[in-house]
Structures are given as C-alpha cells and as structure tokens.
C-alpha cells in the first residue's frame, strides 16, 4: 500500500524575509552598476580627476598677468582612417584669456566614416582649472569621403590656478585629443548635408 506524500510546509516568515533581502540586494547592485558611469563622469568633471576638463558657458571676470604655455596633441585610434592634427602645436595664454584654436581632420577613405573624440589635459591636477566653452568633442563627427574639416576649441585656463600653491611650478599644459571610431549614422542624413569641405566652426 502506497503511503500518500505529505505536502511541503509553507515557507516560514524567516525564509520570506531572506528571499526579499536577497532580491533587494540584487536590485541595488544592478541599479548601482547603471549609476556608476554617470556618477564617475560627474565626479571627474567636478574635481578634474584624471585630467578631465571643465565646461564653461562664459569667460571669467578677470585676466591674470601669469602666462602659461598650452600644447596641443592629436591621436587617432586604430580602425578610424582619419588624419587629425592641430593647426599649431603650442600657444602662450594668460590665465583667464579666452582662446580659440583649430584642429584639422581629413577622412582619408572613399566611404563615410564617423568618430568621437575623447580628451584630457596633463598634468592631471590642472584639469579643474582648464575650461572649454566650445569643443568638437561634445558631438559625434561624421565625415564624407575625402572630406576635410576644421574644428574649433574655445577655452581658457582659470585664473584661480595662480592661487593654488601646488600649481606654482606648472608652466606647460597639454590638451590631448583622441578620435575613436563611431557607428556611421543613416546615410540619408549624411547625403542631405551640404557637399564640400567644412569651414571653421
């Protein structure tokens, strides 16, 4: 004679609490992973960590008598067939002086390509004092076959750098850009743009 199987006991209150706690921990970790990148970007922009520059909307109220040399560096990551270089390698600027410089980029292949620039300054500790008002790095760049484009960077070095004793020995700042490949947008959008070389922006 078969003995009937007994029903499983219902989960206890303790088991339910443990299950909810585990689920909550997983949800928290997933949420934290999505928030980590925006938080890191905000932290870098706020503190200048790792040579991250600042974004400004207007020129500072004063210009300092201290002069500093800014050097311009350009790089292209593997897989992007562009020639990319600054129109001048160095410039002497006064702290607080708004300066516009240009980089030139050429798409060297017979197809549409796209890229976006990453950037930083060195030494890394001056990132909090280096402010850009306008920069081609803020948007993805799409280049038609053989196109050449001049792109502007408008920036200043904050006069507050002169008040930071740790920066007393800084006479040279290097602004470095690297273009990385990006997904080419819809070709219809690219073809609708005006043909020919792009002028200064």
Structure overview:
The chain has 201 residues and is α+β, with helices and mostly antiparallel strands. The protein folds into two domains: 36 residues; 139 residues, Sandwich (Ctag/Cox11 (Pfam 04442)). 20% of the residues lie in helices and 35% in strands. It has two helices and ten strands. It has a five-stranded mixed sheet, with no helix packed on it. A five-stranded mixed sheet has the order 4-2-10-6-8, with no helix packed on it. The chain is flat.
**Second-tier CATH architecture of the largest domain:** Sandwich
Numbering strands along the chain, what is their spatial order in the largest sheet? 1-7-9-5-3
In percent terms, what proportion of residues is strand?
25-35%
Overall mean pLDDT stands at 78
- Strand elements, count: 10
The general outline is flat
> What composes the largest sheet?
5 strands, mixed
CATH class of the largest domain: Mainly Beta
Which segments are poorly predicted (pLDDT under 50) over 5 or more consecutive residues?
A: 26-51, 194-201
Going by CATH, what is the homologous superfamily of the largest domain? Answer: Ctag/Cox11
CATH topology of the largest domain: Ctag/Cox11 (Pfam 04442)
SSE series? HEEEEEEEEEEH
Number of helices: 2
Describe this protein with a few key phrases.
Ctag/Cox11 (Pfam 04442); 2 domains; 5-stranded mixed β-sheet; 2 helices; disordered C terminus
């Amino acid at each position: 004679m078969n003995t009937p199987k007994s029903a499983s006991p219902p989960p206890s209150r303790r088991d339910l609490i443990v299950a909810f706690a585990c689920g909550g921990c997983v949800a928290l970790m997933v949420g934290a992973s999505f928030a980590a990148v925006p938080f890191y970007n905000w932290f870098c922009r706020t503190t200048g960590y790792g040579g991250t520059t600042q974004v400004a909307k207007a020129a500072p109220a004063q210009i300092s008598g201290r002069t500093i040399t800014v050097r311009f560096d350009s790089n292209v990551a593997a897989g992007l067939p562009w020639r990319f270089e600054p129109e001048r390698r160095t410039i002497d600027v006064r702290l607080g002086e708004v300066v516009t410089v240009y980089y030139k980029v050429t798409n060297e292949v017979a197809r549409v390509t796209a890229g976006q620039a990453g950037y930083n300054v060195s030494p890394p500790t001056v990132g909090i004092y280096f402010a850009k008002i306008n920069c081609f790095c803020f948007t993805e760049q799409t280049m038609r076959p053989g196109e050449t484009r001049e792109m502007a960077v408008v920036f200043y070095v904050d006069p507050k750098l002169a008040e930071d004793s740790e920066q007393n020995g800084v006479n040279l700042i290097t602004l470095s850009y690297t273009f990385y490949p990006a997904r080419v947008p819809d070709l219809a959008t690219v073809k609708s743009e005006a043909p020919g070389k792009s002028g200064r922006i």
